[in-house]
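This week, work through this protein record:
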Amino acid sequence: MKSFLIPGLLVLSGLSLSTHVAANNVPQSAQEARVEHAQEWINFLASDELKGRKTGTPEMKKVHAWLEQRFTAIGLKTLPDTDSYRQEFSFEVKGESIDGVNYIGYLDCQCDNDKYIMIGAHYDHVGQNPALEGDITFNGADDDASGVVASLVIAELLSQKESLPFHIIIAAWDAEEMGLLGSKHFAENPMVPLDQIETGIMFELVGTPVEEHPKSAWMTGNQYSNLLELLQDEFAKAGWSLDADPFAQMGLFMRSDNAPFALMDMTREKAEQVFKHGQQADITGIPMHAISVWRGQDHYHQVHDEAEIIDVPNLVALSEVIAKAIANLPSDTKVVWKENPHFKFSRP
């Protein structure tokens, strides 16, 4: 998670999530296979070999090849009028030009709807710190390899449906840790008309639940749109809860990859107008939110954010709940901004 207001190869073979026979000849359920493959994906993304997945480093080429393979294996299409999953961009940090790459694919709903729901997470992290003793790698297993894996599991599940209520965009963002730059680039250089994106869910730290909140996730900015209410029934049917943001005072709605879409014309002046002076600001945006299970654990941006701390079965179960919730939405679903004391929203 980063502030929206900040200026500024190990290649795995194609894996199907269908039922198969494990090495010990015991047939696996589809859910068990999903857990096994999700664990392999977490292990890859959080491996020391990738040196913390810092944007622009040579190791990111291995991640790009892996994402290309995953998108292809799932059967994601390139967006209409494009011939690649890659959306390339560049930016400068301290006079150095850095190249970033978003990976964007989609599932055609095989329906009459021309609207999209966007699902995504950032695949970059903060790299290494050679000044440390011992472990110098910030592996970013929860932040945000867990979110990337959740997005891929959801994509795999939805790809098996004959039809869907909306087209589904699957996004893997780069350079989130440098100021939400990948998602910001897409929002400013959209590959589909922004008025066709009905809503979206970004994932942040969805791999480490706490015992006090089993089968529970929460949504940033829940007070701003009706998306929370639209998903809660499906969560409840599965024995899960989708809760309001327990850290509203931290402003997390503005600190993940939903923000460049939800707060398109946000400025520092508007933020001060709202949060310093208590005045409502006019904002253009698409109702888009982040979902998390993090409850304040200390691994955020620490070297011990490694694959071992991820509860993969829980991560897969959450992905299954969200995939079902999306698949069961009526095709005429409207995600609308609510009246609230902070922002007067309008859609692009």
